[in-house]
Amino acid sequence: MLVNFRRTRSGLEFSEIGLGCMNLPENYQLASEIMDSAINQGINYFDTADLYNKGKNEELIGKFLKEHHKRNDVLIGSKVGNEFNFEDDDVKWNPSRNHILNSVKESLRRLKIDYLDLYMLHGGTMEDDKDETIDAFNTLKNDGLIRAYGISSIRPNVISYYLKHSDIDVIMMQFNMLDNRPEMLTDTIAEHDVKILARGPVMKGLLTDHYSEVVDKKFSKGILDYSKDELTQILSKAAMDSPLTESTMSYLLNHPVASIVCGASSPDQLQTNLAHYEQIKNSAANSTRDYFKNIDYQDHLS
Ligand SMILES: NC(=O)c1ccc[n+]([C@@H]2O[C@H](COP(=O)([O-])OP(=O)(O)OC[C@H]3O[C@@H](n4cnc5c(N)ncnc54)[C@H](OP(=O)(O)O)[C@@H]3O)[C@@H](O)[C@H]2O)c1
């Protein structure tokens, strides 16, 4: 399949659909089937983080890349900032220079690669010493250990700081037709020549043909400004126009998004999502988004 690419300011060419590796099965055979199929169909972005399964997600990807000789076929993005240990579930936020410079080595070791294409701060607050964090990312970039950096954040105040004071390529944020809060920020992000990595594009399965079961299973208390009943009503109405996955993808591609980072826990899900992408990749956004409420970020504004 032909997947289109989008370029970021440091010259990284992201496939419009990426693979969110957090959701990969722990079973290596099944996970490698998904990764192999993704690459064969034109996906070139694999998204992971040191925290996912406490390093095991990076190890799974590393094993696959090495055994299948695929390092040069993909951009690998990982994330840092959560200090974890193997004894208990305690996770401590640590965006310090030392932690970042040490953690990158651990991620590279687990991934069995020499450099990361993208390294993202896995969150962040206004209270952090943000300039120290930025300095650490710039050091890694100058040293050739990463090609570009970014942040994963849904805090407008943190995003604004990084847009003004750093050379980030991308911001990863939950973004889809239901969670359309990033619309508040897309113009500013584009003005800074930065692009979005859209996580949660199918909202854990809500924006798929299986929305009805997913509402019952995962969203029985509703989500954002929607009660459970409202969700079911709005999704069934929107699904009558066109498949929800196609609508959310086409909506995202009409924003400054570098890649739609879809999670898939089975080869079938990947296949279905890619088939939906194939349907809309060169088309204009449809108007399905208009069924959904306009939602704004309420916290961390200044
Ligand atoms: N803070 C952060 O930086 C952060 C946070 C979250 C995620 N991420 C990244 O973003 C990626 C995507 O995030 P996400 O998992 O929230 O996104 P998502 O793509 O909206 O959800 C993925 C899940 O949706 C379900 N799904 C996917 N395709 C489906 C289909 N065709 N039919 C039915 N269900 C389907 C599956 O759930 P089941 O497995 O239950 O079937 C799958 O695990 C992650 O893998 C991770 O790399 C980053």
UniProtKB/TrEMBL annotation:
Stated name of the protein: Aldo/keto reductase
Classification via SUPFAM superfamilies: NAD(P)-linked oxidoreductase
Organism: Macrococcus lamae
Residue ranges of domain NADP-dependent oxidoreductase in the record: 16-278
InterPro entries reported for this sequence: AKR2_Oxidoreductase, NAD(P)_OxRdtase_dom_sf, NADP_OxRdtase_dom
